[in-house]
Structure formats: C-alpha cells, structure tokens
UniProtKB/TrEMBL annotation:
It is a multi-pass membrane protein. Residues 59-198 form the Potassium channel inwardly rectifying transmembrane domain. Its main location: membrane. It comes from the Eukaryota. The record marks N184 as: Role in the control of polyamine-mediated channel gating and in the blocking by intracellular magnesium. It comes from Equus caballus. GO terms for biological process: potassium ion import across plasma membrane; regulation of monoatomic ion transmembrane transport. Residues 406-425 have a biased composition (Basic and acidic residues). It is found in: Membrane. This is G protein-activated inward rectifier potassium channel 2. It catalyses: K(+)(in) = K(+)(out). The gene is KCNJ6. It holds the Pfam family IRK_C.
C-alpha cells in the first residue's frame, strides 16, 4: 500500500514538472536563432513560445529597395560611369566634390603660371620697367593663383594680362580655357541633372496602406488604390505588380525572392492609367494568378510580398518618374473593400483624401479561388456565378425553414389551448 502511494506521488510530481516545462520552462523551448535586428524589434512582453519571425521587406513602403550590395571587388566599374556615380551621391558629397574640383584646377594652373614666371626670371625683374614679363603684375604665387581664377572663369579684371613675348604662356592659356570649359560643362551638368531628378515628384504619388481581397463581379480579386496629390498629372502612367516569394523547383533548387508577374490588366489595357483621381487597381484571381490556391486561413501563413510600381512622365518636365510601394501578408485584408473618395459637388468632382486609406468589411467567402471554382463546377454553375448571391440563397432557405418551424410551433400551441378549453368544459 505504501509502495503504491509512493509511486503515485512520484508520478504526479513528474507530470507537474513536465507541465511546468511545457508552459514556463525555457529549457523545453528551443527558440530559433534570430538576427540582432529582428530580436531588437520583438516586443519584450511577448512570451518566447509565441514569438514570430519578422518578415523582411524587399521594398519598403516609401519605395526604397531594402538591398545592400556587399563585397563588390570590381569598384573600378563605378569610375567608368563617373557621371552617374556623381549624380547618385548624396548632396553633401556632391557639393564637396564640386568645390574640390574647381579649387584643385585653380591651384594646379596657378602653380604652373608661377613656375613659368619663376623660370623666365620675371620674379627678379619685378621693378624693372624695361623687362617684359609673361604676365604683367604677377609677383608671387598668390597673384598667379588669382590670375588662374580669372582665366578659367573668364572674369578679366584687366590688371594681370598675358603678353605676346611668352609663347609657353599662350599655350597654357589655351589649355586652361579648354579644360575649364570641360570642367564647367561636366560639373554644372551634373548639378543640373541632380536638381531636376523626379524623385521628389514620386512622393506625391500615394498608395493605399493596405491591399484588400473581396468579390468583384462574381470573381475573387486582389485590389489596392493609387492616387496623385498634384494638379499637374502624370502622362502615360502605367502600373505593374510583382509577387516576391521564395520557391523551390521540382529539381530541388531553391530560388530566394523569386519574382512573379501579377496581371493588373496588361492584356486588356487596364494597366495604362488616366490618373486624375484615385483609382483602384484590380487583379483577378484566376488559374494564372499566384493566389489561385490561397484561402483566407492560409494567407497569414504565407511569406510573400507584393511590389507595385507606378511609372509615367512628369507633365511639367517630361522626365520619367517611378513610384514604388509594397504589401506584406499582414497588410492584405481579406473580405474588405475601399471606401469611396470621389463625390460630385456643384460643377466639379471632389476627392476626399482623408478616406483614401479607409476600408470597410464586406461579405466574402473564405475559400480560395480554386475551391470556389470547384464548388461552382460541382453545382453545374458558370464560373461567373456570384458567390455572394449563392450565400444569400442559403440564408434565404434558412430563414424559410425557421419561419416554417415557427408556424408549426404556433399550430401546436393552438391545439394545446383547444384541448385545455375542452377539458375545462
């Protein structure tokens, strides 16, 4: 008897320890090793068994690509296209290079002018009126540096002048004039291109913060909204979408961040936009769509990203502009639609951008497009049959059954009342 009690108590203790380990003990939980950035971004109040791996974006919401190029050994390729390299630099480095190029060229040619005067002996005959120097009133390196600035910038104050008795100075003057023109054309052109870049124009092209999935014309569609905040429009605007998702081929090859086209109206011409007011871009989920087999329950488990690209020409400058954004799985809302933002006023249309990102919930089946097509084929219905109307029919049948049950119940209650009255009589 004592041995049985001891065995039972030991069993209870072991079961309690195992439950504690399953719930609280950090030894029983093997947490995956996350990068430092992902570990820092995790909230501290979340328990370790419920932490989820952060989805890394390929393109950020502001359109910047989240890709860094490392271990680039062939850096000389950047110098072969020095103009693009200078344009891509940040403003502080660009201005520094702009100032340094002019300063170095002025100093370089100023040193040569001083050497010519020193070798010819002009420094020794500064006060000699009978001596003809190479450059008049050049008496040191500072004056040679000032003459170099005047020559390259074509200022020409008239105090320092080259004479015709110095052929080497005439040759140097020609060389400096030509090289100065080249430097001016290169640096001013670089600054002009950098100033006129249409990157800031893309900041007034907005995308909705969420993408939605709902029924449209009886078909399951993925939708997002784009808009232009300026009165000057984007000419020849076009929209594209890419699905970024890693995949593994049938041969076992792993392809990270594989890019798949998402059809947003390429064959019908709906991808070419007249972007005067906000537009809802729709992607029909059919057999060619990468979302064909994804249902509402499966969507949060997917690790994917939708990159949308809006391109067009700026009406004011004629330069090509591109705006980008992306949506991860947590930013795709199943069973929602966008709130209308366009209203008709007295003689014009008004766009309410306060409701640009707003959505509202709508009745949408939680099945995938493939499952909906299979259900429609089993019921011998066309694929264009509205699933929402089918659900409404089921709801109507249920209400009719409930009404019949209520009528039967009232009839039974009436019969019981009659029997009671007869018994009393």
């Amino acid at each position: 008897m004592t041995m049985a009690k001891l065995t039972e108590s030991m069993t209870n203790v072991l079961e309690g320890d195992s439950m504690d380990q399953d719930v609280e003990s950090p030894v029983a939980i093997h947490q995956p090793k996350l990068p430092k950035q992902a570990r820092d971004d995790l909230p501290r109040h979340i328990s370790r068994d419920r932490t989820k791996r952060k989805i890394q974006r390929y393109v950020r919401k502001d359109g910047k690509c989240n890709v860094h190029h490392g271990n680039v050994r062939e850096t000389y390729r950047y110098l072969t296209d020095i103009f693009t390299t200078l344009v891509d630099l940040k403003w502080r480095f660009n201005l520094l290079i702009f100032v340094m190029v002019y300063t170095v060229t002025w100093l370089f040619f100023g040193m040569i002018w001083w050497l010519i005067a020193y070798i010819r002996g002009d420094m020794d005959h500064i006060e000699d009126p009978s001596w003809t120097p190479c450059v008049t009133n050049l008496n040191g390196f500072v004056s040679a540096f000032l003459f170099s600035i005047e020559t390259e910038t074509t200022i020409g104050y008239g105090y320092r002048v080259i004479t015709d008795k110095c052929p080497e100075g005439i040759i140097l003057l020609l060389i400096q004039s030509v090289l100065g023109s080249i430097v001016n054309a290169f640096m001013v052109g670089c600054m002009f291109v950098k100033i006129s870049q249409p990157k800031k124009r893309a900041e007034t092209l907005v995308f909705s913060t969420h993408a939605v999935i709902s029924m449209r014309d009886g078909k399951l569609c993925l939708m997002f909204r784009v808009g232009d905040l300026r009165n000057s429009h984007i000419v020849e605007a076009s929209i594209r979408a890419k699905l970024i998702k890693s995949k593994q081929t049938s041969e076992g090859e792993f392809i990270p961040l594989n890019q798949t086209d998402i059809n947003v109206g390429y064959y019908t011409g709906d991808d070419r936009l007249f972007l005067v007011s906000p537009l809802i871009i729709s992607h029909e989920i059919n057999q060619q769509s990468p979302f064909w087999e994804i249902s509402k329950a499966q969507l949060p488990k997917e690790e994917l990203e939708i990159v949308v690209i809006l391109e067009g020409m700026v009406e004011a400058t004629g330069m090509t502009c591109q705006a980008r954004s992306s949506y991860v799985t947590s930013e795709i809302l199943w069973g929602y639609r966008f709130t209308p933002v366009l209203t008709l006023e007295d003689g014009f249309y008004e766009v309410d951008y306060n409701s640009f990102h707003e959505t509202y919930e709508t009745s949408t089946p939680s099945l995938s497009a493939k499952e909906l097509a299979e259900l429609a084929s089993r019921a011998e219905l066309p694929l264009s049959w509205s699933v929402s109307s089918k659900l409404n029919q089921h709801a109507e049948l249920e209400t009719e059954e409930e009404e019949k049950n209520l009528e039967e119940q009232t009839e039974r209650n009436g019969d019981v009342a009659k029997l009671e009255n007869e018994s009393k009589v």
